[in-house]
Amino acid sequence: DGGITQSPKYLFRKEGQNVTLSCEQNLNHDAMYWYRQDPGQGLRLIYYSQIVNDFQKGDIAEGYSVSREKKESFPLTVTSAQKNPTAFYLCASSTSSGGSPLHFGNGTRLTVT
Amino acid sequence: EDQVTQSPEALRLQEGESSSLNCSYTVSGLRGLFWYRQDPGKGPEFLFTLYSAGEEKEKERLKATLTKKESFLHITAPKPEDSATYLCAGRGSGNTPLVFGKGTRLSVIA
């Protein structure tokens, strides 16, 4: 079945460590996205990529980095510069058509202590 | 700046008690208004896309409608399994990403 796989489901890290969240899709979608979800805040866009080897900052990119070396993969690194990294992280993908919906993975819950 | 606002933040219904969730939007050159359902600890699940005012879409007990300023998600005779957070999002002109509302948390009590 086609879909988006995020791994791991739960991730624990010590403060000061960088951590990379995985996102893989087999939907042949051009565009991929990373969102952060906090209670009461809704979904906030971190980074997005509309084509391989290109990506743009979203509303809350500070303290995060991404790469898009393959169409299927869009890993997110949460760096030690991110002040409040504990959150639920969601990856999504879509076709390049403006009216097409996003398809989401099931998220990674990151806890930094 | 594009904006999407959902109300109410939370809604508690008795089983069978129909109601509506509201999504107000100011999105320049709207290319699609999207509804999602999200269960706790999971990613949002796509429900509907609406493209133009007057459009309606239905799925089981859910019906989504769109005007030039708002979208409504009508829930008819809800069941406890309809309990979830419902998210609304809009996409504007160009290649701008979706803008999400904060969601409505629906609880349906048996």
The number of helical elements of chain A comes to 0
Q: Which stretches of chain B are poorly predicted, pLDDT < 50 over at least 5 residues?
A: none
Task: Give unreliable regions of chain A as ranges.
Answer: none
Strand content of chain A: over 45%
The rounded Rg of chain B comes to: 13 Å
The greatest interface here is: A-B, 26 and 24 residues
Instruction: Give the termini distance of chain A in whole angstroms.
Output: 36 Å
Largest sheet entry of chain B:
6 strands, mixed
Helix content of chain A: under 10%
How much of the polypeptide of chain B forms β-strand, as a percent range?
A: over 45%
What is the number of strand segments of chain B?
11
Number of strands of chain A: 11
Q: How much is the average pLDDT of chain A? A: 94
| SS-based class of chain B | mainly beta
What gyration radius of chain A follows from the Cα positions, in whole Å?
Answer: 13 Å
| Sheet having the most strands of chain A | 7 strands, mixed
Distance between the termini of chain B: 41 Å
Order of helices and strands of chain A: EEEEEEEEEEE
Notes on the protein architecture:
- Chain A is mainly β and 113 residues long.
- In chain A, the strands form two sheets. In chain A, strands 2, 4, 5, 6, 9, 10 and 11 form a seven-stranded mixed beta sheet that branches.
- In chain A, 0% of the residues lie in helices and 51% in strands.
- With 110 residues, chain B is mostly beta strands.
- Helix content of chain B is 0%, strand content 56%.
- Chain B is built from no helices and eleven strands.
- In chain B, the strands form two sheets. In chain B, strands 2, 4, 5, 9, 10 and 11 form a six-stranded mixed beta sheet that branches. Chain B has a five-stranded antiparallel beta sheet with strand order 1-3-8-7-6, with no helix packed on it.
- In chain B, strand 4 and strand 5 form a beta hairpin.
- In chain B, 37% of the residues are buried.
- The mean pLDDT of chain B is 95.
- Chains A and B meet through strand 5 and strand 10 of A and strand 4, strand 5 and strand 9 of B.
